[in-house]
Amino acid sequence: MFDIQAVSDEHSEKIQAVINGKTKPLGALGELEHLAKQIAKIQLTTHDFETPKINQHKLQLTHPHLTVFAGDHGVASEGVSIAPSEVTRQMVANFAGGGAAINVFSQQLGWQLNIVDAGILQPVLSSSVKAQRLGNITQPINQHAAMTKAQVQQGFAYAKQHVVEISNTGCNIIAFGEMGIGNTTIASAIMATMMNIPASEAVGRGTGISDEIVLKKQQVVEQALALHRDNLTDTESILRCLGGFEVVQITAAMLAAAENRMLIVVDGFICTAAAMLAIKFNASVKDYMVFAHCSGEQGHEKMLQWLEVKPLLHLGLRLGEGTGAALALPIIQAAVAFFNDMASFADAEVTNVT
């Protein structure tokens, strides 16, 4: 379903030489240098390295798009959140009306924002909301499989088509956010499955729940893992048993973005759970991922360590919506700008003492 080309290391030394040749001490731009190298490996071709000066072929970030996928979760009825499922719809209406944090950040920073109803209790009738509904709510994961195999497959198809449409606009950098009451429980279950750890190490406070609800949340995840243990073998099965409609589509959208050689900006806890599943499906997708931030959710740092990746930002965010990914865009743009436009020692006639 996804034909993803692994990013080649063939020209890594030449790219590194360009970075090292800029008018700065070696490594002085820290993680920006690693980020610029990652983007160069994705975007530059063999032809670019056949020219006398690689800098004649600049990196580009074109038409940044961020899609928020929303879905409702049957597990919310188990008392794992401070908010009822109805809040998912209310927040989708807020997105459509331009009033949420992700609207503000997208407008400020230059993201084209898309809102997708992946399956919420009641649709929001707005031209600003794209319907890719797999149902109106998933089954409680501690009692049943979250959804059917057919729903997972439909979610993959919807997400792939959505990303293709965005790619056709010329976009080469894409991010995803989520909205769904109960989805930190879903992400915790996915994390525990992928990392083979107990629920107590994966479950956090989400939007700010009490100690009592944290314990309830742990119990629900433990029940779900025990119920589905024999079926948690591959990405699609994990999504069928433990996933959410929005998590299914984010996972597939990441795979589709990599297929189209787009830079993928990964948001927080829930989106990182989707990223883990996308990588399990096809390891090459990781080459295209930039991890935007380490959230305030207690399991997120463990996820990032397990994936062996460094986030760009540490702001204590735990809002979701793609807000961390949105805020990372200026950092990514800075990495591209220094690679493209910063003078080399030779060009600036500065003595290279590195």
Automatic annotation (TrEMBL):
One of its GO terms (molecular function) is nicotinate-nucleotide-dimethylbenzimidazole phosphoribosyltransferase activity. Pfam families: DBI_PRT. It comes from the Bacteria. The keyword Glycosyltransferase applies. It catalyses: 5,6-dimethylbenzimidazole + nicotinate beta-D-ribonucleotide = alpha-ribazole 5'-phosphate + nicotinate + H(+). The active site is at E321. InterPro entries: Nict_dMeBzImd_PRibTrfase, Nict_dMeBzImd_PRibTrfase_bact, Nict_dMeBzImd_PRibTrfase_N, Nict_dMeBzImd_PRibTrfase_sf. Keywords: Cobalamin biosynthesis, Glycosyltransferase, Transferase. GO terms for biological process: cobalamin biosynthetic process. Pathway: Nucleoside biosynthesis; alpha-ribazole biosynthesis; alpha-ribazole from 5,6-dimethylbenzimidazole: step 1/2. Its EC number is 2.4.2.21. Catalyzes the synthesis of alpha-ribazole-5'-phosphate from nicotinate mononucleotide (NAMN) and 5,6-dimethylbenzimidazole (DMB). Belongs to the CobT family. This is Nicotinate-nucleotide--dimethylbenzimidazole phosphoribosyltransferase. It comes from Cognaticolwellia beringensis. The lineage of its organism: Bacteria, Pseudomonadati, Pseudomonadota, Gammaproteobacteria, Alteromonadales. The gene is cobT.
